[in-house]
Amino acid sequence: MLKQSLLYLSQSPTAKRMVTGTPVSRQMARRFVAGDTLDEALAAARALNDAGLSVSLDYLGEAVESREEAEAATDMVIRILEALKRDGLDANVSVKPTQFGLDLDPDFCRRGIEMVLQRARELGDGEGEIFVRLDMESSDYTERTVALVESLWADGFQNTGTVLQSMLRRTPDDVERMIRLGARVRLVKGAYLEPETVAYPDKADTDRMFVEEMERLLDAGKYPAIATHDEAIIDHARRYVWEKGIAKESFEFQMLYGVRRDLQTRLREEGYNVRVYVPFGESWYPYLMRRLAERPANMMFMAGSIAKESGIGGLGRPLAIGGGMVAGALAALAWRRRR
């Protein structure tokens, strides 16, 4: 219930105004977000590279409402690519199709993504193209995103791949589509609020499907990214590749910036490729709420602070789940909106 409430609030303009208006929220965001600016993101990437970790930079933003916003996002991603080349960083880029205007005009969105992929290709300069991954959003966009990757590959843009979510019932078929295509897949559990008709409601099913799909991707050998902080699944992956004789260099683990740094370091020391997903930018609210939904214990600190600063801490005080309490204001807002 807590996870669903947080995911619901990630889409609420009222909750966004409440949360982004408090200093503690910005402090919490800085745990998961490298900063507001590209320079801050590049500094974080350098530090991670120095520690032996690869990076995927994500300029935060989604569901733009104008072509001007989409064009600005395109320009920023190209700036990121040029900075990665200039600074010699071990990094690639992740982008969201809705940030390029998928909701406005699919053809317009595709042209922007093509511009990014073309620039990434040019910057490779014989040393390998910079990889640009199309992030997956909610299930409303799954088919359009998978089909877009297929279309881009058909037109020669093979420096792109996508993300698949084990919580979605359709994902085994999408895994096979991407394997046939040859595109690289990042496998995640999923962090969006979805109906039971399209997603598994139980975590156990999501975990079970993650393992099955992970094994299929590892067997296919298309350099999959196993994106999880779940140590049981990570241990399963380590055993599986050892038993199957799969080289450590043929896949990578991916983890989020600010989450389980100890595990990132340990896996790298064991010889595994590890890439850290590093988001930056001012549009951090939806990203923060999805991260809190994944790890509700992080609400403990933020909850009381938001309620105290907003002066309405008593509105949702009784909602305590799993030893944690949702901020009174946010809990009350979610309850009222969802009745």
From TrEMBL:
Keywords: FAD, Flavoprotein, Membrane, Nucleotide-binding, Oxidoreductase, Proline metabolism, Transmembrane, Transmembrane helix. Residues 42-302 form the Proline dehydrogenase domain. GO terms for molecular function: nucleotide binding; proline dehydrogenase activity. The chain crosses the membrane at residues 315-335. Its EC number is 1.5.5.2. Its cofactor is FAD. This is proline dehydrogenase.
